[in-house]
Amino acid sequence: MADAHEARLARLLIARGHEARPARPGFTRERRLVAALAVTQTVGFGVLYYVFSVLLDPMTRDLRASASQVALALTLSVLVSALCAPFAGRWLDARGGRLLMTAGSVLGTLALLAWSRVENVVQLYAVFAAVGVASAMVLYEAAFAVIVTRFSGRGRASALLAVMVVAGFASSIFLPLAGVLVQAHGWRQALVILAALYGATAIPLHAVALRRSRSAREAGRGGSGDPGDAGSADHTGEADHAGRAEGEGGRAALVRAATRQAAFWLLTVAFTLHNAATATFSVLLVTYLVHLGHPPLLAATVAGTLGILSVTGRLVITGLQSRLPTALVAAAVFALQALAAVLLPMIGAGVAGAVTAVLLFGLGFGVGALTKPHLLAERYGTVAFASLSGRIALPATLAKAGAPAAALAVALTAGYGWVMAGVTLACLVAAATLVAYHRVSFRRPSNHGEAPA
After folding, report:
1. CA separation for the pair 326, 372 (Å, rounded)
2. Most buried among 49, 246, 318, 364, using CB within 10 Å?
3. Is the distance from CB of 393 to CB of 85 less than 8 angstroms?
4. Alpha carbon distances (Å) from 100 to 82, 249, 347
5. pTM (two decimals)
6. Cα–Cα distances in Å, from 255 out to 17, 137, 402?
7. For residues 202 and 221, what is the distance between their CA atoms, to the nearest angstrom?
């Protein structure tokens, strides 16, 4: 009886998540929100993630540690971020993003300042555990949860795309900037400057731009957890009961109902495997190209073309979302990446062949991050979006952190051909899993009938 009531409540909550439309706070407010998140994601990824590679050598010398010991700090940060993702998701669903992302920006700024003062690897690891917590609070998972609950339909897709396209330039901006700062001031002072830059942008932007309008807050009190319409007057009886229960207990019921469905686990498997494949390919690409006979400089240049078609892939999938099922479009892109991984060992010894394979694989960079919010919101609404997204982010981020190291061990013992075979298999299974997800019977939740499979 309790399970039946819980399933019924979950269906009502999903229905409200679909039927409630996020408030339209006005074109200026929408643009301000998207612009703010685009800036904070660009700066956040730049200083909390990408600059590490520029600082690796000088840190290794100063801390008198091996490169592998120092590099382990970044892996630790990713792992901590993954472990924090479900907790951040629950907070976002219950309270929104403003306080969490503002506090995360403060923590990130303090962590950067502490990073500039470390004297040994133990201190470095402690600092990067804090960086991991801050990353879970301020980067894509949190930003996308805010966008999903503030926008709907094409507006949501356009907002997600805008933030991802701008943030895609983080490495292009902050790698050379960090290099210039390190050369001019040393790595410690460079971090102080970057901390000041991050704090001066992320803290006020998250505090001001993520503030909801009065009408949005009043709508949010209707129980959806969104700044949206609380629902129509037609929701009476059980719907009113669902509205009153739509706090922590209601969201928990929806999360439990969703995680009992095959569809949720199909999404989890697809995005976990795709994360593992893309992380492995990108991390080991330069080393593999050198193994194929290319000079190191040329290998690095070819690897740099990975991002050229990533914006194209994001634009294509966003444009096709209104015409074709998103899951099938993403599956097709994942299959193209599998083809690229097959081709690289076959044609990668030549420059043209290597560039072709790398460009083809790059088409799918960022597609998973763009597709997941759409599929989750489409199926489960926005009531528990961040909680469900955090559930998927945990294994997906762990795979991103662990897969390259496992692949390197395979490469050293069995050869890089087996690594590319593994990347191919992961992409193909991810594509097949999304096709299976699409084939699962999807019925809009209602007050009658069973919950979606």
Report:
1. 10
2. 364
3. yes
4. 16, 21, 48
5. 0.74
6. 13, 20, 27
7. 27
Q: Which residues pair with 22 in a beta bridge?
A: 228
Q: Which helix (H) or strand (E) holds 381?
A: none
Structure tokens at 207: 């505090």
| Tokens coding 354 | 């290597």
Which secondary-structure segment (H or E) carries 249? helix 248-259
Q: What is the pLDDT along the chain (453 residues), one digit of tens a residue?
A: 445 544 554 554 455 445 444 444 455 777 889 999 999 999 999 899 888 878 888 898 999 988 778 888 888 998 999 889 888 888 888 888 889 999 999 999 999 999 999 999 999 999 999 999 999 999 988 898 888 888 876 778 788 888 888 887 887 788 888 888 988 899 999 999 999 999 999 999 999 988 765 544 444 444 334 433 333 333 333 333 444 445 566 677 888 888 888 889 999 999 999 999 988 898 788 888 888 998 887 887 787 777 667 777 777 777 777 788 889 989 999 999 999 999 999 999 999 999 999 989 988 887 888 888 888 888 888 788 888 888 888 899 889 888 888 888 898 899 999 999 999 999 999 999 999 999 885 554 443 334 445
User: 334 with 430: CB under 8 angstroms?
Assistant: yes
State the Cα angle at 267 between 266 and 270, rounded to 5°.
85
Inter-residue contact 144 to 101 (CB < 8 Å): no
Tokens representing 310? 């990533």
Tallying the residues shown for the chain, one arrives at 453
The helix or strand, by DSSP H or E, that contains position 223, with its residue range, turns out to be: none
Cα distance between residue 307 and residue 347, in whole Å: 20
CB 205 within 8 A of CB 55: no
| Amino acid at the residue 296 | P
